[in-house]
Every structure is written in C-alpha cells, then in structure tokens.
Amino acid sequence: MSGTDQPRTRLTPPEGATPPVRHPDAPAPGELLGAHYDGCFGCGTGQPHGLHLAARAGDGVSITAEFTVKAAHQGAPGLAHGGVLATALDETLGSLNWLLRVIAVTGRLETDFLAPVPLGTVLHIEARVTAVHGRKIYSTAVGRIGAPDGPVAVRAQAVFVEVKVDHFIDNGRTEEIQAAMADPDQVKRARAFEVNP
C-alpha cells in the first residue's frame, strides 16, 4: 500500500455503490420535516428534556438541522455532553432517509469531537447521503457552533441499513407500536418507524 492509499473502512462506500437519488415524493427543499415520532428524544415534542431538533430538507439528498444546547444536555459543567452531540448528528443523519423514502436504522456511527459546545449554543448541522449500496446508506454530517458557517465542533460518518417495518413490530414495546400504527395520518404513521434500531 502506498502512502496515499487509504484503507477501506466499514464507513467507506464499497466499489459499485451508487449516488443517492432523492425520491420524487420527498419534502421540498426548505420544508420543515417535523418530528418523525412525538416520543423521539432527538426530534419529538413529547420529550421535555429532548433535543427538539428541527430539520429541514435541503437540495439533493441533504438535510439541515439545529438544536439549542440546554442545561439538561450538559456533561462537563457548562458544556454539551458528547453523547448528546452524537445523538443530534444521528438524528439528523436518520432524517436523510425520509428524502429517500426508506425505513432505515443506524448500523454504524463514528463521531469526531473537535471543539467543546457551550450551553446556550445553537448547533447547526448539515448532513447528506454520499452513496447507496444494496440496503446500506452511507452519509456524513457536520455540526457548527452558532451559525451555518460557524466553527466545526463535531462531525460524523454513518451507515444506515434499510429495514422493513417488521423490525420495529418484532422488537419494539407493544403499546408504543400499536399507538403509532393506529395513527390515522399515513405520513406520521410511516415516519414513526424511520430511524434508529
């Protein structure tokens, strides 16, 4: 291997991966996506200490999102907990699947922490799908402090794996699954099962 060769990792799309294709029924660029599930810690409004992350569809297969770091999100005094930052990136990356109109779960997430994020900060996240190979969806995200062009605080690479709704029915708690399946809003019902194992 020469000094310029990079070893292939599980986060590198394999040979034969294809560029992502935005679904024709995906939300329009700029459209607020809303919570995929009210009980979701990342985007749901039913979680008092959740992130309440707000994501918008971008161009191509991309998403922008933001959330404000609150006292309930701290690790070290006055700073965001790294796990909360990873959750914000995972939530944003998972929302990309709505642009492909597939149900997918996080298979692997690798996060790099580059700068501390103080309480009260608005973290601006941009994520995009880079490739698709079979059931695997490869994506990246960057979180910036204070503005869409602010300093980079955190970044991630991820692989999501497309699943059928049975994944949730077979593994989720019955009461929540039945409540989500009973929602008369077809879009909300479908989106309830879009992200995370």
From TrEMBL:
<dbReference type="GO" id="GO:0006631">
    <property type="term" value="P:fatty acid metabolic process"/>
</dbReference>
<dbReference type="Pfam" id="PF03061">
    <property type="entry name" value="4HBT"/>
</dbReference>
<comment type="similarity">
    <text>Belongs to the THEM4/THEM5 thioesterase family.</text>
</comment>
<dbReference type="InterPro" id="IPR052365">
    <property type="entry name" value="THEM4/THEM5_acyl-CoA_thioest"/>
</dbReference>
<keyword id="KW-0472">Membrane</keyword>
<keyword id="KW-0963">Cytoplasm</keyword>
<dbReference type="GO" id="GO:0005737">
    <property type="term" value="C:cytoplasm"/>
</dbReference>
<keyword id="KW-0053">Apoptosis</keyword>
<keyword id="KW-0276">Fatty acid metabolism</keyword>
<dbReference type="InterPro" id="IPR006683">
    <property type="entry name" value="Thioestr_dom"/>
</dbReference>
<dbReference type="GO" id="GO:0016020">
    <property type="term" value="C:membrane"/>
</dbReference>
<keyword id="KW-1003">Cell membrane</keyword>
<keyword id="KW-0378">Hydrolase</keyword>
<keyword id="KW-0809">Transit peptide</keyword>
<protein>
    <recommendedName>
        <fullName>Acyl-coenzyme A thioesterase THEM4</fullName>
        <ecNumber>3.1.2.2</ecNumber>
    </recommendedName>
</protein>
<dbReference type="InterPro" id="IPR029069">
    <property type="entry name" value="HotDog_dom_sf"/>
</dbReference>
<feature type="domain" description="Thioesterase">
    <location>
        <begin position="78"/>
        <end position="137"/>
    </location>
</feature>
<keyword id="KW-0966">Cell projection</keyword>
<dbReference type="GO" id="GO:0016787">
    <property type="term" value="F:hydrolase activity"/>
</dbReference>
<keyword id="KW-0443">Lipid metabolism</keyword>
<feature type="region of interest" description="Disordered">
    <location>
        <begin position="1"/>
        <end position="29"/>
    </location>
</feature>
